[in-house]
Amino acid sequence: MILLLCMLSLLIVARSHMQLNYPPAFNSSNNPHTSGAPDPFLFYPYNCCGRTTVFPCGGYLNLLGKPEGAPVTSWVVGSKQKFTLTGLGNHYGGSCQVGFSVDKGKTFQVATSFEGNCPHRNGGLDPSGQTFEFDVPADMPTGQAVFAWTWMNREQEFFMNCAAVTIAKKDSKSSSSTGPASNAAPSYDMDGCTCTCASAFALDAANQYTTGGCDCDCSKAPSAPKPGAIHKRAVLIPAINKRITPAYLMSDCACTCAQAAKKNTNGHYSMSDCTCTCNESPTAAGSKHKRFGSIVRSHFRSLVTKHNLEHDLERDVDVVHVEERSTVAYKDRPSMFFADINNGCESPLTTAELKYPKPGPDVVPGDGVYPLALPSPASECGV
Q1: Coil, strand or helix: which one is 380?
Q2: Residues 160 and 23 in one domain
Q3: Burial of 150 by CB count in 10 Å (0-12 exposed, 13-18 middle, 19+ buried)?
Q4: Which structural domain range is residue 99 located in?
Q5: Which Gene3D superfamilies match (predicted)?
Q6: Separation between Cα atoms, residue 215 and residue 188, nearest integer Å
Q7: Which band of pLDDT confidence, cut at 50, 70 and 90, is reported for residue 205?
Q8: What is the pLDDT of residues 156-181, one digit of tens each?
Q9: Structural domain includes residue 156
Q10: Is the CB of residue 293 less than 8 Å from the CB of residue 251?
Q11: Based on the domain organization, do 259 and 356 belong to the same domain?
C-alpha cells in the first residue's frame, strides 16, 4: 500500500506543472474571491489524468458576473504589466501566449507571444523567477475583461488559466504599475463629489460599472431623484424608486447610501457607505479630465521600441522585455493559438519549442536553446 501511494505521488508530481500566479486565476488558492475549495488541477495540462477539462479557461467563465468572478486587478490601457507563474515543474521551457477576451470568452485576442523559454527554463518554480512583462493593448475596450495565459511545452501538453481584470481608461489612476494592484482605496470625481470606495468600479453582468463602500464628500448638495424617476441612460436602481434608502444622482451614476447627505463643518455635504452604479467607468480623482462621461480622444503615436534581453546573473534568470509596442488595432490582432486539445493541431514534440503561426505584433524571442518549429499539420493549425 505504501509503495502504491509513493508511486501515485510520483505520478502526480510528474504530471503537475505550472499555473498563473498573478493575476490570480479563477478559483485559485490565491484568488481573494474564491469562496469554496480551490481547484487543485490548475497546475495540470488539459485533459490530464483521466479528466476532461472544459475549454476555455477550465470552465470557469461561468463565474463572470458573480462575486467569485470579480476582477482581481485593474490595468490601464497601454500600460506595461507583468504576469507571474508558479508550480511544481517548468518542463525546461516551452512557448506561451497572453491575451484578452472582451466578450466573456467567445474570442481571445493576442497581447504578447513568448516564443521559447516560457516558463523560464532556469527560473525555478517561484514567481520571483517566473516573471514576464507585456503591454496592455493601447486601444482595447475598457471595462471588465478576461486575461488568459496559455502554455505549450515540448511534451505536447496544453495549459490555460484565466483571470478577471478591469481595463481602465488611460487617465484613470487604476494600477498602472507592473505588479499587483495597490491596496490604496480608489477615489473618483463625480459631479462635484469626491468618493473614496472600498474597491475599484468593475463592469457587472448588465454592462454597468458598480462598486460599494463609498464615502463621498460633495462641494454642493447632491441631487436626489424624484420618486419613480429613471436615471438618464436607463440606469435604474430599485431602491431609488422605492425610496428605501437615501439615493442621489452624481454625474452618470446613481448611488444609494446608508445615510442621507449631511452638511459638515467645512460647508461640504457628506454621505457614507454608498453603493453606486454607473454607465461609464468614473474618472479617478485628480485626473485632468474632470467631466464625467465625456469622450476623450487620444492620438497614439507609433512606438516601436526594441529591447535586448537582459540577464540577471545574480539569480541566473532571464528578464524578458516586450520587443515591440505595435500600432496594430486591438480588433485586428490575431486570435490566441490553441493546440494539443484534441482539435487536430499539435505542437512540436521534444526537440523544438513552438513558433506561433500568427504570433501577433508583440513577440518576445526565446534564448535559442531549442529551435522553433511550427505546429502541424498545417491544414489544421492555420499555418
Answers
A1: helix
A2: yes
A3: buried
A4: 2-170+302-381
A5: 2.70.50.70
A6: 10
A7: low
A8: 999 999 999 999 998 644 444 444 44
A9: yes
A10: yes
A11: no
